[in-house]
Design a protein that fits this description.
The protein has about 130 residues and is mainly beta. The model has no long low-confidence stretch (mean pLDDT about 85).
């Protein structure tokens, strides 16, 4: 099934994207090369969508997995992660599904990584 990406002026089938440039300094534009040889330009605000960073391809339930967050006083907190998401760009990202909205833990400014079983020291996983 095709994954369509909205870039404002049109939609692009992500299956046909060959490469995407980083946003250019000054113009703030990205260049999207398609397998047809055509190059499409779009604003930098579409970079994450085109790369697939926010599109979830698969969700995997996990147990014993925690998001490590830092409090204002520097102390660490551990919030249980119930699911990990495989995103369109191939990353595995922790999901916060405790509230009505599903969000990525690693988008939070106080996020410090994920760990397994913090009661015994929790081996950290760099992210």
């Amino acid at each position: 099934m095709a994954h369509m990406v909205d870039i404002g002026s049109c939609g692009i089938n992500a299956d046909h994207i060959v490469s995407v440039s980083y946003p250019e300094e000054g113009s703030g534009r990205i260049r999207i090369e398609l397998d047809s040889g055509r190059t499409v330009e779009a604003g930098a605000e579409y970079y994450e969508a085109v790369m697939g960073r926010r599109s979830i391809r698969q969700i995997v339930p996990v147990a014993g997995c925690y998001a490590r967050t830092e409090d204002y006083d520097g102390s660490l907190n551990y919030e249980q992660i119930h699911c990990l998401a495989l995103t369109g760009d191939g990353e595995v990202r922790p999901l916060d599904v405790a509230e009505d909205l599903t969000e990525f833990f690693d988008d939070y400014c106080n996020y410090k990584g994920i760990c397994w079983n913090p009661e015994i020291g929790g081996r950290g996983i760099p992210t």
